[in-house]
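SEVERITY: medium
COMPONENT: batch folding queue
REPORTER: lab tech (J.R.)

DESCRIPTION
The queue accepted two submissions in a row. Attaching both inputs and their returned structure tokens so the on-call engineer can compare them side by side.

ATTACHMENT 1
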Amino acid sequence: MLRYWIHLLQEKRLYCSTCNAITSHRILAREPFSIHAEIPPEIPLVCQCKICESFVIAFSHEIFFGTKNAKAEYAKLLSQNRLAPGDWVYVDGKQRPSLVDAVYKTQTEEIIDVEYDGQKEKLKRSILTQFNEKAPFGFRLLPAQVGETLLGDPIYHVLRKMIGVAIGSVFDKDVKKLVVQLENGKIVFITLPDEFQPLPDSILLRRLTERVQQRFPNLGNSIRLNVVHNVVYVYGSVSNLPDKEAIARFVKMQPNFRGVVDMLSVYCVGSPVSDEEISREAFRILENEKSPFFCNEVHVKENVLYINAYYFADAHLEKIKSDLHHILGLRDLKLELEEVPLPPPTMRKRAEILLATLKAKYTDCNFHVIPLSEGILVEGSVKNIWQKGAVNIFILQNSKGLKINTRLRVDA
């Protein structure tokens, strides 16, 4: 299984239950992502110990990569963090954080107006010259937030009055515990509350198997399921990409699971389909005159189709996505799409006229004419290099006064 996780995202020092120690771990993904941008949720990642090479599965929404999720709740500390209006600040001895209303300074101290339990209060501290930049967003407050704490989260243990970091989770006789390293080096195991304790894997697997068999009765023999630490592993092979995605989508909708590791593959009934055949069929779909995509960059590798394209703001993408998914032999589809503003109505009219002229003149070619804000783009395919030259000349002769770009392919 590990051979698919080849992209290194980061290295973290985490707790390894096999080594029973804090060791350096590689965080690996199946696709390239940047930790400096927000990684989509529910992406399965491998956390592999560099000492013993054992690994666990964690999901992108379970790991703190240094960027704050908009829905995440962190509290800053009066003694360590920069404060601004809208921040939550925790003061030792309080039951919960206070909301910062205003911050202003005198020559010797900083005064913070806060709201605590509906009451206005003032906090004071000496003007800080050094801040904890390792936790600029604040800390998870433990043990109260133990259930929401992510792997790598900076934490503040309210009872011990120490900062630290969440370095892992373990199961102790089916009881899940968060592993935390405090600033003094001590490792603490904190039991999660009952509402965050997972159901037994055997129960979840039995329920899931029954639901999948009911939903996909004709594919039951093609799918194998397993549940480990509330992570679903889906194995097997199906004959087309839509079935593969439908199964994965259905499994992800089921409650009480941390996430899904989709190991389903797509096989082609009959003769194998080459990358060239998939590419040719993709262009046939993309170059249809009604296609909403334009400026298409198409690449096929090992029956995986990669498309980078643009579309207008009013475009309907469901049909073309469905058509692409149903390409025979396709194992996976990766779309990188960018929305652009609508072109002016006058340019749309000019594009319609040019398309009609081209179709009347060259009946054996495919044309996709796209109106842009300052001109027209003509895409499509022709039979040979000589016809391509003739088409380009014809377009220029019939579009005087317009800025024209052509992206014509020779499709023998």
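ATTACHMENT 2
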Amino acid sequence: MEPSNSAVNFLKKIQKFFKIKDSIARSLLSGFLGTIVMDMVNFTFWRLKRTEALHGHMAGSVFVNPFRTNQRKNFWLGQVTHQFTGAVLAIPFNYLLKKTGKDHLALKGAFFGTMTWEVVYGIGQKYGLFTTKPHLTKTHYAELLNHLVYGITTAHALVALSEPTTFPDNQSKTSQNTQSKKVQPIYSDTNYDGDISGNHII
């Protein structure tokens, strides 16, 4: 998870200097950054033999037979497809954050990453989208972690690259609403010539 923490720290550093107003461009770049960090974790797992394939192998198997994905040209075809998919998937997530706000950002990013794991990886495997099929359970767990990293990094990238007012902060709104609902004392300059029982003083 160290690459993910480094990416979040990097995004915090550039947050003050680099903003993108266009939502589509911001989403594509954020998804691209999230996919890069995801691939770094995937490569680490692959080197440690915690997973059976790289994402370039799996995505490349959409176009060619699995044994041909080891060829450099086919691997990079799969890698480009994988990067493009990760970038595009950030677009609906951007609109989700606009609707729900940027509070609990890591949790929302983790939810988004889990959904992409289930839809792209899980359903893709089940219905034969990828002809490269992992056989070990540890590969499925590794892919879940990869997609969690992707979702969390993409979420932080979207907020870091946006203007402060792009995504609402619901916690701040709740605090402001609570303050406004507090009972304020009412003062009047009108002289009252009665006692507290309501009887007029003669």
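NOTES FROM REPORTER
The chain has a mean pLDDT of 83.
No errors were logged for either attachment.
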